[in-house]
Structures are given as C-alpha cells and as structure tokens.
Amino acid sequence: MRIRVLGCSGAIAQGCRTTSFLIDDDVLIDAGTGVGDLTLDEMARVGDVLLTHSHLDHVAALPLMLDAVAARRMAQGLGPIRVHALPETIAALKAHVFNGVIWPDFSAIPRADAPLIVFVALQVGQRLFLAGKQIEALPAVHTVPAVGYAVSAGAGHWVFSGDTERNPAFWARINELAVSHLVIETAFSDREQAIAQRSLHLAPATLAQELAQIAIGCQYPIYITHTKPAETGLIVDEIRRFDGAPRHDIRWLSTGDVFEV
Known about the structure:
By secondary structure, the protein is of the alpha/beta class. It is built from eight helices and 16 strands. It has a seven-stranded mixed sheet. The protein is globular, with a radius of gyration of 18 Å.
C-alpha cells in the first residue's frame, strides 16, 4: 500500500496545500487543496473519497475535482465517485456545497439515477473494504462531527488522527492495532493554546499529553500535520522542547511525502 501526501497544511500559502492523502491510486482521504496537484488522469482514477469532517480545508477540492473529471468518467463508463463520511458531514455538504447555489448537485447530475457522486454514510468504528484495503473510522473530538482513519492492506496500519483535541477513545483503539505510521494534527502553538482549545485542535502541550497514552512497548514514527504556516517554526521548536530526550520518533509531514506500508 502506498500513501502519497497531497496536502498537510492547516491553511494555504505558497507551497502549502490543505489536507489530502492519496491511497494507492484510487482512494482519497480528505479532499483539501492538495488534490489540485493531481493530473486529470490521476483524479479520474479515484473511485472513493473518505472525509474526516465538513470543514473547508478538508473538502475544498471535492466539488472542483468532480467538475474536472466528470466528462472523462462518463465517457469511460466509470460510474459515480463514492463519498464516504459521517451522516452529519454528508448533510453539511448537501446543504452548503452541493446545493445548486455554491455548486451544482452532482448527486443528481447528469441524472438522479446516474449521478457523478453517491454519498455513503459511515459511523465511528465502522470498517470498510475498498480496493484491497481495510479502512476503519476512528473517533475524533472536534467542533463538528469528525473521524480519523486507520488504513491497512493486510500488514501494519497507517493511522491519521483527523482534526481532534484530547481523545482517549482514539488511543484506546489504536493501542490495539499494529501501527506502522501515525499522522497526528498539531494546528496551533502553545502561545495560542486558548484558541486551540476553543477550536478543538492540539497544541504541543496537549500533544505531549496525548502521546503519553501510547501503550508501553509501542514504537512507530509520529508525523505532525495541520500546522498553520505562520506558526510551523514555533510549533516545531515547542515540540522539540517537550520531546528533547527524544522519547518519541517525531517527524514533520511534508507535501509530497510517500509512505509504503
């Protein structure tokens, strides 16, 4: 299994793309602005999109991608793209994006019985089997209903926290898994701890509390994602200070990184 980082920033700036990961060549986890770096052929091969939640930085490219590949997918008879998400996320997309005002309703175009996308509701804890991959929806704690994901092709699990604050249920579950890589958000610096708590994101101090919940004996690389571009340097310094030993194998995710699991 191959995971390609299309975007991992908490906002946009030159060289910064928001959250999206391409699994092999046919599954997207989140559809942030990083999707725009795919070629038309690459976008057309995506058959399933799994969303963590409804916030714009995680869904911004979805309507644009659908428009970009619509004619190609129809001509090739590829069928609709399946968008998997919590029911609340699907409801938000239907009400606020695919509503005929912000963007056309591709779940009824070109026809209601032959749409370009279908929405597939999922629940926390549900396991999906897509194109040879097992994908489990993990609990997340955010300002809107949200999930993370654990993805496996039969060996180790690549785990993505999604947007979350402190989350005991997440650790209880991943401590039961054979984790090969953990990608975890740290959106704000400690000097913005109050904003982090209000928006239900992690900062270095709360990240340290979270990493303390990793089961004894579990060792795997931990990749920091979703940093705000203006704060990334400070966040890196603050994480290095609390993990100065180092106790964990902490790394920084970059657009273009590739994981092989």
